[in-house]
Structures are given as structure tokens and as C-alpha cells.
Amino acid sequence: MRKPIIIGNWKMNKTAEQATLLVADLLSELQIVKSVDCVVCPPFTALMVVSQMVNNTGIGVGAQDMYWENAGAFTGEVAPQMIKEFCQYVILGHSERRTLLGETDDMVNRKVKAAIANSLIPIVCVGEKAEENESGLTEKVVERQIKKNLEGVTKDKLDSIIIAYEPVWAIGTGRAATKDDAQRVIGSIIRKLLISIYGDESAQRVRILYGGSVNGQNAAEYFCMADIDGALVGGASLKAPDFISIVRAAIK
Fold first, then answer.
1. Catalytic one among 103, 128, 132, 166?
2. Domains and their CATH numbers in the chain
């Protein structure tokens, strides 16, 4: 059985001080949760204080991005070894970085391999744009992203990866995918592709999440689907009651 995981992506929100207040509100509820993995991904400036607060609580910490080199003349970038001091996870290939900052599949692939080499768990984001969805290109786009983003990742490293299916048209729009559509993409496209590349046994161990306007009201619908192992949560992760309600849905 794959253990459910709920990951909060705070994006460019919360100062270090605000982060401490949010984590304090989360701790009373989440540190007693054992059946679901809970992870928070604050901005870089709050990673240190958040990691100190959740130390030995069972709550994981993730960064929202990283560079693929361990050191060098890369002004403004953050290396795997730098975030490894505070994190166990790192979000890679988020659609906002692909769309707004021109991040390519090749860049995501370099980051994935660098994360694994530094014992970080990459949360690899894939998903189609609205026009691609409407043109029936979802399968083609998602398969291309998976193949290119995981190129060079061997079967023995597959357990070190989490995949998040986030249709671009559903992120922050309030327009979530239906549970059946999410299950179709995650089960019939993503997991099926992983099976064809890595074999059934390895592919069945990979946790695949849904992301895109997930909230306390619709979370349970997704978690009852066979191949959806949790959620990558955006806006609803910025308020403790909302994030906690999603975790509770995963527990049930």
C-alpha cells in the first residue's frame, strides 16, 4: 500500500515571521498524524525557521525549486546541498516555473537527477495547458514530460520520486479536474507509462498526487480514487484549517 502524502506549496507567500505562525497552528493537529505524510514547502527565506519548528514532529519540509549544480557562479540560484540542510523534499518542474520562467524539460531532468544524487525526494510536476486539454493533447503532453523529466533515472531510484499531476488550467483558478479525469490521467496515462518503462512492481510503488484547486471540500473525492495518493496543495495550504481539513480527508 502506498502511504498518502499531502504537500503544501506556499509559493511566494509568508515571511519568516508569518511562517512561524502558520506552522504553530499546524503542529497541534499534524504532528499526531501517522497514517499520512505531511510536508510543507515554504519560500527559501523561511526554510531554516520552519525546519527548526518541525524537527522531530514527523512533518516534512520541502523547497520549491533548486539548481542542478552543487556550487558555482550561478547568481540567485540555490544548490541541492544548501536546501538539504533544511529539507527532505524539493518541488521541481512546477508549471509556473515552466510558463513564467521558461524552464524546460531538460532543465527539470537535470534537477531531478541532482536531487536524487543529493538524497532529496523530488516532487516532479507535470500537466497540460487549457488549450492542450481542449485539443485532446493531454496524454501526449504528460507522456512527453514524464519521459523527458525522468530520463536517466534507473529503476532502483524510482522509489525516490513523487509525481504530481497538476493540469495548468486548474492551478489557482478554482476550476478543479473531476475525480474521474484526474484518475484517468494518473492511472491510465502516468502509472501505465511508468509500468511500461520500469515494470509493474516498481511503478506501483510510486506515489502520484493530484494538484489544482484542491480544498477541504473536494479532497476526499480525489483520495477515494485508486491511483491518487494525495495532493500537492497551493492556496489551501496557506491557512491552517484548510490544510488540516485536506489531511483529515486523506486519513479517512
1. 166
2. 65-238 (3.20.20.70)
